[in-house]
Design goal:
Blueprint (H helix, E strand, L loop, with lengths): L1 H17 L1 E5 L8 H7 L7 H8 L4 E4 L5 E12 L8 H4 L1 E14 L5 E15 L5
Antiparallel strand pairs: 1-3, 2-3, 3-4, 4-5
Length: about 130
């Protein structure tokens, strides 16, 4: 009986560890507000330098005044342990994670005017009982 319980716990832990997913721009996966501040200097860093640092943006926007913004996003999710328990996962399952966003604003000269970096918690719930 003890062996079966240990085996079940080991299998559940292995499934939980294996059930990670990420999406978005890997270049900001480990970025922090401090690292972005070291890399981007307002009034000095050019679009070409930003592209070398972070790659192509996920989204670009243009304003009528000639200004442009680039958006980068990275999401890392971890499945909940209940996802791997038969029948329980029908009632409550999902994933928890973190989302990072970096938005960079450029002036007409294609130089960084401003930027913002944010981190937020992300939660996805499925099943009969959701938050």
């Amino acid at each position: 009986m003890q062996f079966r319980l240990s085996l079940l716990v080991s299998i559940l832990m292995a499934c939980a560890l294996a059930a990670c997913a990420s999406s978005g721009n890997d270049s900001i996966a480990e970025a922090t507000g401090e690292s972005v501040a070291r890399n981007l200097q307002k009034g000095r860093t050019t679009q070409a330098e930003v592209r070398k640092l972070y790659g192509d943006p996920m989204k670009t926007s243009f304003k009528s005044n000639g200004f442009e913004s680039w958006e980068y996003e990275f999401v890392r999710m971890q499945s909940r342990p209940t996802n791997f328990i038969p029948y329980v996962n029908l009632v409550h399952s999902g994933a928890d994670g973190e989302k990072k966003s970096l938005v960079i604003f450029f002036d007409r000269g294609k130089v960084v005017q401003d930027y913002t970096m944010s981190n937020s918690k992300v939660e996805v719930s499925t099943g009969l009982i959701t938050k």
